[in-house]
Amino acid sequence: MAIEMLAKPAGAWCPECKPGRGCQSYENRPAECRSFNCLWLIDQRFGPHWKPNKSKLVLTTSQDGIEIRCDPGFPDAWRREPIRSEITRLAVSGEEHDVTVLVIIGAKMMLVAPDREFDLGVVGPHQRIVRELEGKRVIGATVVTASDLDERM
Ligand code: SF4
Fold first, then answer.
1. How far is the CA of 78 from the centre of ligand 1 (A)?
2. Statement: the pTM of the whole predicted model exceeds 0.70
């Protein structure tokens, strides 16, 4: 994830991170890092197989729903069972409650619906995902620029 205070873009190593040893400035880490909560730690729905170092996935929330961040070195990690079936169940529940389930692999994003996946390709920081709904059912998804979206609203 991007860390604004460190000018760290998404997908890049943090200069404070020493692989295998962790954060070298943990006591003085930025507020963005302090306020971050990995969903796996705080949401009991996700069992031990979701632990990031095993699953190669990090779970976070956004304004719209759940984000499943996949290690780009293991781009199919989210398709392994039982995780893939659990993601489908999240999508079923998400559709009912207007919550999105997004898989993020590097800069690429995939919106997961109960019965299909919408491959959105690379989605930039100034772009937004717009879902097309039929009732509660997601039948399409497109990527638009944030400014275009603001004009439509
Ligand atoms: S916790 Fe430390 S290593 Fe991790 S992003 Fe923040 S400053 Fe970097």
1. 24
2. yes
